[in-house]
Structure formats: structure tokens, C-alpha cells
């Protein structure tokens, strides 16, 4: 079918509503934030309109650089852990009878209904010395005495993976359900063991889905600011924690805005890089 | 013995028996068509030979050894799926070389073998194309080449030609048969198209309701069907009731047919006669009289529908022996005894 280019204003009318929504809920607030990031902080009040780079200049320090680096590494690790766990899980789930699948998906959705605060405190209790899972390990003889697992980096990672996992599974599920099961059977008749067939056929056939899921979880994890505070030490705090701190507790809106803009730019760059690498591999 | 033997193979899914005590023995180098209506268990049987389903009971023997517990990837077979199942992320050449890659063959070996196979399927120089850029018939050939890459002992195809248009399908049937004869590979094809089975097979296995009803060369299946189901499924046929009178004469539609006998002890049976064996002539004599209800002139053949005694008999003739009849005309139908096949009813 040949598509004609839209000519009159009326031809563009289907775009008006989404365009309006995008402007009201994205362009306006984001522009405001960018503008605020150049404003001058007023220690006695809020901020005064200005055009200074001091907010960005303050950000360019080793401390904030480290925090930014940690945030990005943490988000990448969460994304990779989620996909590595969720992909085989979802694949095996799609092989179960429909009824079993429905029950699992409903359970996963109910995990989504938990608030971040509840997840954080539940995990911090589970990781304590007095009431935590290590007591269970002691009981079954895996450990000598109970230890506290929180606050630590691994506690933060576990909590964030737990929070993002249901999203990951729900995003992967439709693509895996649609995957032609005969592709795998074909690989097996050609001499590939089930695990090998999975790695050779299912994973590459769904590469785009996997990349998209990685990016989604990465962006999701980048915005997390409660779990690092509940489960981690201050050294495990992400940039999002510092942004919240500056914006709410220090009332330094311009600096918070500058950090937020920087975070967005960094994550966009990383996403762009991922897509670029993906395209290059595709061309081979 | 050498070849493939199925011994009392049964497969149940819950209460449903997909394949019911199937027994079959196929020597090497034969082309076997598993033929039957949809849901008759033919695909399940093929999948069990491939190891993609485990039989509920029974054994599959290849050259005398029981391969029932051997997993699919160790069975050394090639299979073409109905959906073809070409890997979308690989090129044509990489698809064909995939089984070699699995076995750790070098890049050069892979290239050499895939070029060899591409020549065999008349697609030389296609190695670097993406699979998505191929036509239906080309994909078909690539799937066949991939299945043959390791020169397997068994070549299995599950309704391989069903996605192609009628003309291409006929051409591919001939090509597939010639390829199989050149390679001398034991081949199993699942199909519901009896014409396809007649074209390609050394041995046609007719299945119905999970049971193997008859396994014989195509012409025997056509000329000597084992029962009414087989007779009806393979080609067109006239199934008529036969009765025996006190004198022992067998009559069909009230007309005694000289020379026709039915097994002793039976008073009733079914008779199958192929439309091309039915003779149309003038009314009178030994002929059964009837009325022509419809004439289907297909150019190459002419089908005449004759109604007699509440039954419709179909007669097929070539234009050369053109039966000059029109709808509404009275005709005499003769059923030669030697062409009638008596079936248990």
C-alpha cells in the first residue's frame, strides 16, 4: 500500500492529542527543570531566575563523579541480573499449561502492588542478624551463626532486582509466548542439546526484545532512591538519593535540577550506545 | 533387521489416544508417506520417530537397536517442519551449516558443505542472503538442505509442502522424490494430500483415528484398499452395498454381477469400485439402469453422476472415450467384476 504524505492541517489532526499530552506532561516540566538548573540559589528563599553554570560546575567533582558512576554501574547490574534470571524463568513459564501460567502472572502482578517502602523494610528485616534468613541457614546447618547482611551493596542489589523482576518478566512474556516452538525443536533435530539450542536459537531470535528489556530495567533502576537508603550505607547511595536530598532537604532546587539533567543525559548516552552496538552486530 | 521398525507404539495425551499400537517395518532407502485426515495421529507418529515426543508404550528400533530412550539431538536425523523453522537470525548458508557448527566443524568445512548443498537444491550463490529475503519455494529448499547437511540416516518431513501454491507443490513433489532417490535416504513424509502420497511414496501408510489401517505401495492402496475408510480416503470411489441371495449370487443395487464372490459366511459386504472402472452404456441387458443427474466436464476427464436406486454412482472417462450423455438421460451402468473390491462392512 502506498502512503500519501499528509497535506492539509486536518491530515495531521490525529497527532494533536498525543502531541498536547507530550507537551503538557513532558516538554513543559522538563524545560522547566532545565531552566531551573541554570538559576541562582537563594539561601534565604527558593531560587532567583538567572543564567549561571555554577550548578553544573559544582557537580563536576570527584565525589559526584563517583556517585554518578556508582548509580550507572548499579543500574546496569540490576538490569543484567533481572534479564539473566527472568529470561529462562519466563521461557520455562511459557512451556507450562495455560492455567499455571495465569496463576504465576497473577502472583507477579500482586508483587507489583507492593510499595517500594514495604519491599525495602521487608528485605531489611530478612537481612537482619536477629530475625533474618541467616537464622534459617544456621538451622539447616549451612552457617555457624547468624550474621547481618544489611546494610551492604548486595542487599541493595537484591532489593532492586526483586522490585524490577516482575516488570522484566511481564515485558519478556509476550515475546516468548509468540516464539515459534519449532525453532527449538529444529535445533534439537540438527544435533543441539536443549541448553545449546536455547542459547543458539531462542536468545538470538529475541535479541531485540532482550536489549529493549535491559534498557527498560536500567532506566527503572536508575530512578530508585528509597531502596539504597533503606538497605545500603551512604556509600551505596545513588545519584537519585542525592537529588532527592538536595531538592527536598537542602531546598537547593537549581543544583538538584542540574544533577537530574546530567543523569538524563548520561542515561540517554548509554541507551544510545547500546542501540548503536546492537545495530552494528546486526549488520554482521 | 536393517531399517526402521515401530513396535506396538502407543501415545496417549490424558484420555486421548493419539497413536494406537502402531506396527511398521521400513527397510532403508524407502520413501514412506504417512497419510490420513487431520487429527489421525500421523504427525504424532513422526514426532515420536524424531524423539520430540516419547511414546507411552512400545519401542522404535533403528537397525536393530532400540532408539526409544535416545534424545532427539543424538538420533542423527534430519527433519523439515511444517513452519520450516529456519533460524531468522542466520543467513541461508549459516542455517544450512548450523548442524556442522554444533559439531565443531571449521568455518571452511561449513562453507564447503553448505555450498555443496546449495548446488544440490539449485540455489548456488545464495549463502549470504538473509532467510527473510527468500520466496516460499526457496525457503522450502533451504529447510530441506539444512536437514540433509549431515547426511542423516532418517529424513523426516512434516507436511513440508502445505504452504506452497498448487503448481509449485506439484513441482516440489517430483523434485523431492528425485532427490530422495538420488541420495537413497530413508524418508518419512506426513501429508493429508493423497495425490502427494501417490506421487512420491514407495510405501503409503494410511492412518485413521490413531491406527495404521494399511501400509502398502501406492498402487496397491488404490487398487486393493483394506477397508471402506482407505478406499474412500484415497481417490474417488463408489462404495456400494453387496448382497448374497440364496443361490449364492452376489448382487449390487439389485443386479447380479457374474464372477463376483464375497468371503464365505458373509451375507452382506461393501464393494468399492473406482469411477474410471465404471462403464456407461445403453439401458438393458446386464446393466443397472439409472438417470444421469450431472456431467462435470473438466476437459481432461469427464465425470458423470448417475442416480440409481437412491445411490449416486460416479463414472469417469477421458474425452477420447467420450460417453455422449446429458443430464436427465437414462443410461445403463456396468460394474466389471474384476474391478470390484469386496470390503468388510
Automatic annotation (TrEMBL), chain A:
<dbReference type="Pfam" id="PF00528">
    <property type="entry name" value="BPD_transp_1"/>
</dbReference>
<feature type="transmembrane region" description="Helical">
    <location>
        <begin position="12"/>
        <end position="39"/>
    </location>
</feature>
<dbReference type="InterPro" id="IPR000515">
    <property type="entry name" value="MetI-like"/>
</dbReference>
<dbReference type="InterPro" id="IPR035906">
    <property type="entry name" value="MetI-like_sf"/>
</dbReference>
<protein>
    <submittedName>
        <fullName>Spermidine/putrescine transport system permease protein</fullName>
    </submittedName>
</protein>
<keyword id="KW-0472">Membrane</keyword>
<feature type="transmembrane region" description="Helical">
    <location>
        <begin position="59"/>
        <end position="91"/>
    </location>
</feature>
<keyword id="KW-1133">Transmembrane helix</keyword>
<feature type="transmembrane region" description="Helical">
    <location>
        <begin position="153"/>
        <end position="176"/>
    </location>
</feature>
<feature type="transmembrane region" description="Helical">
    <location>
        <begin position="197"/>
        <end position="227"/>
    </location>
</feature>
<keyword id="KW-0813">Transport</keyword>
<feature type="transmembrane region" description="Helical">
    <location>
        <begin position="255"/>
        <end position="278"/>
    </location>
</feature>
<keyword id="KW-1003">Cell membrane</keyword>
<keyword id="KW-0812">Transmembrane</keyword>
<feature type="domain" description="ABC transmembrane type-1">
    <location>
        <begin position="68"/>
        <end position="274"/>
    </location>
</feature>
<comment type="similarity">
    <text>Belongs to the binding-protein-dependent transport system permease family. CysTW subfamily.</text>
</comment>
<feature type="transmembrane region" description="Helical">
    <location>
        <begin position="103"/>
        <end position="123"/>
    </location>
</feature>
From TrEMBL, chain B:
<dbReference type="InterPro" id="IPR017871">
    <property type="entry name" value="ABC_transporter-like_CS"/>
</dbReference>
<keyword id="KW-0813">Transport</keyword>
<dbReference type="InterPro" id="IPR027417">
    <property type="entry name" value="P-loop_NTPase"/>
</dbReference>
<dbReference type="InterPro" id="IPR013611">
    <property type="entry name" value="Transp-assoc_OB_typ2"/>
</dbReference>
<dbReference type="InterPro" id="IPR012340">
    <property type="entry name" value="NA-bd_OB-fold"/>
</dbReference>
<dbReference type="InterPro" id="IPR003593">
    <property type="entry name" value="AAA+_ATPase"/>
</dbReference>
<dbReference type="Pfam" id="PF00005">
    <property type="entry name" value="ABC_tran"/>
</dbReference>
<comment type="similarity">
    <text>Belongs to the ABC transporter superfamily.</text>
</comment>
<protein>
    <submittedName>
        <fullName>Spermidine/putrescine transport system ATP-binding protein</fullName>
    </submittedName>
</protein>
<dbReference type="GO" id="GO:0005524">
    <property type="term" value="F:ATP binding"/>
</dbReference>
<keyword id="KW-0067">ATP-binding</keyword>
<dbReference type="Pfam" id="PF08402">
    <property type="entry name" value="TOBE_2"/>
</dbReference>
<dbReference type="InterPro" id="IPR050093">
    <property type="entry name" value="ABC_SmlMolc_Importer"/>
</dbReference>
<dbReference type="InterPro" id="IPR003439">
    <property type="entry name" value="ABC_transporter-like_ATP-bd"/>
</dbReference>
<dbReference type="InterPro" id="IPR008995">
    <property type="entry name" value="Mo/tungstate-bd_C_term_dom"/>
</dbReference>
<keyword id="KW-0547">Nucleotide-binding</keyword>
<feature type="domain" description="ABC transporter">
    <location>
        <begin position="4"/>
        <end position="234"/>
    </location>
</feature>
Amino acid at each position: 500500500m502506498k502512503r500519501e504524505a499528509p497535506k492539509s492541517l486536518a491530515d495531521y489532526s490525529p497527532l494533536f492529542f498525543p502531541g498536547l499530552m507530550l507537551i503538557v506532561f513532558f516538554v513543559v516540566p522538563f524545560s522547566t527543570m532545565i531552566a531551573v538548573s541554570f538559576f541562582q540559589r537563594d539561601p534565604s528563599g527558593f531560587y532567583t531566575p538567572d543564567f549561571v553554570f555554577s550548578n553544573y560546575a559544582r557537580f563536576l567533582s570527584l565525589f559526584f563523579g563517583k556517585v554518578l558512576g556508582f548509580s550507572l554501574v548499579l543500574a546496569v547490574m540490576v538490569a543484567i541480573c533481572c534479564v539473566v534470571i527472568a529470561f529462562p524463568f519466563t521461557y520455562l513459564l511459557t512451556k507450562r499449561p495455560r492455567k499455571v501460567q495465569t496463576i504465576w502472572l497473577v502472583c507477579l502482578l500482586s508483587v507489583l502492588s507492593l510499595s517500594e517502602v514495604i519491599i525495602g523494610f521487608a528485605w531489611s528485616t530478612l537481612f537482619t542478624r536477629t530475625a533474618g534468613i541467616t537464622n534459617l541457614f544456621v538451622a539447616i546447618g549451612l552457617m555457624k551463626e547468624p550474621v547481618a547482611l544489611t546494610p551492604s551493596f548486595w542487599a541493595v542489589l537484591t532489593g532492586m532486582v526483586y522490585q524490577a523482576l516482575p516488570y522484566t518478566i511481564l515485558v519478556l512474556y509476550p515475546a516468548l509466548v509468540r516464539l515459534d516452538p519449532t525453532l527449538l525443536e529444529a535445533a534439537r533435530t540438527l544435533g543441539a542439546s536443549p541448553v545449546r539450542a536455547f542459547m543458539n536459537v531462542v536468545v538470538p531470535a529475541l535479541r531485540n526484545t532482550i536489549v529493549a528489556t535491559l534498557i527498560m530495567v536500567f532506566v527503572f533502576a536508575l530512578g530508585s532512591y528509597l531502596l539504597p537508603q533503606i538497605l545500603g550505607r551512604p556509600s551505596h547511595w545513588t545519584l537519585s538519593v542525592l537529588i532527592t536530598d538536595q531538592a527536598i532537604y537542602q531546598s537547593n532546587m537549581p543544583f538538584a535540577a542540574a544533577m537530574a539533567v546530567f543523569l538524563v543525559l548520561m542515561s540517554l548516552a548509554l541507551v544510545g550506545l547500546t542501540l548503536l552496538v546492537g545495530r552494528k552486530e546486526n549488520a554482521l | 533387521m536393517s531399517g526402521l521398525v515401530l513396535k506396538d507404539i502407543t501415545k496417549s495425551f490424558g484420555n486421548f489416544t493419539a497413536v494406537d499400537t502402531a506396527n511398521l517395518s521400513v527397510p532403508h532407502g524407502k520413501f514412506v508417506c504417512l497419510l490420513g485426515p487431520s487429527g489421525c495421529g500421523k504427525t504424532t507418529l513422526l514426532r515420536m520417530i524424531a524423539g520430540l515426543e516419547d511414546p507411552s508404550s512400545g519401542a522404535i528400533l533403528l537397525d536393530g537397536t532400540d532408539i526409544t530412550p535416545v534424545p532427539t539431538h543424538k538420533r542423527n536425523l534430519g527433519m523439515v517442519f511444517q513452519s520450516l523453522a529456519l533460524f531468522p537470525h542466520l543467513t541461508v548458508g549459516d542455517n544450512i551449516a548450523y548442524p556442522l557448527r554444533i559439531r565443531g566443524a571449521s568455518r571452511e568445512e561449513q562453507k564447503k558443505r553448505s555450498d555443496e548443498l546449495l548446488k544440490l537444491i539449485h540455489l548456488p550463490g545464495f549463502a549470504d542472503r538473509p532467510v527473510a529475503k527468500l520466496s516460499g519455494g526457496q525457503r522450502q529448499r533451504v529447510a530441506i538442505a539444512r536437514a540433509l547437511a549431515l547426511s542423516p540416516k532418517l529424513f523426516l518431513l512434516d507436511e513440508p509442502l502445505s504452504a506452497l501454491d498448487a503448481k509449485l507443490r506439484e513441482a516440489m513433489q517430483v523434485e523431492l522424490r528425485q532427490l530422495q532417490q538420488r541420495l537413497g535416504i530413508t524418508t518419512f513424509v506426513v501429508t493429508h494430500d493423497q495425490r502427494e502420497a501417490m506421487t512420491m511414496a514407495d510405501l503409503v501408510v494410511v492412518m485413521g483415528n490413531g491406527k495404521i489401517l494399511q501400509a502398502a505401495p501406492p498402487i496397491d492402496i488404490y487398487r486393493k484398499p483394506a477397508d471402506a475408510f482407505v478406499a474412500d480416503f484415497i481417490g474417488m470411489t463408489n462404495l456400494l452395498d453387496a448382497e448374497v441371495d440364496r443361490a449364492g449370487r452376489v448382487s449390487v443395487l439389485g443386479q447380479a454381477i457374474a464372477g463376483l464372490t464375497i468371503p464365505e459366511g458373509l451375507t452382506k459386504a461393501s464393494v468399492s469400485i473406482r469411477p474410471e472402472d465404471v462403464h456407461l452404456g445403453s439401458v438393458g441387458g446386464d446393466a443397472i439402469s439409472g438417470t444421469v443427474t450431472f456431467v462435470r466436464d473438466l476437459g481432461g476427464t469427464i465425470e458423470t453422476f448417475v442416480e440409481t436406486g437412491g445411490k449416486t454412482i460416479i463414472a469417469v472417462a477421458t474425452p477420447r472415450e467420450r460417453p455422449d450423455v446429458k443430464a436427465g438421460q437414462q443410461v445403463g451402468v456396468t460394474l466389471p467384476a474384476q474391478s470390484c473390491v469386496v470390503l468388510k462392512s
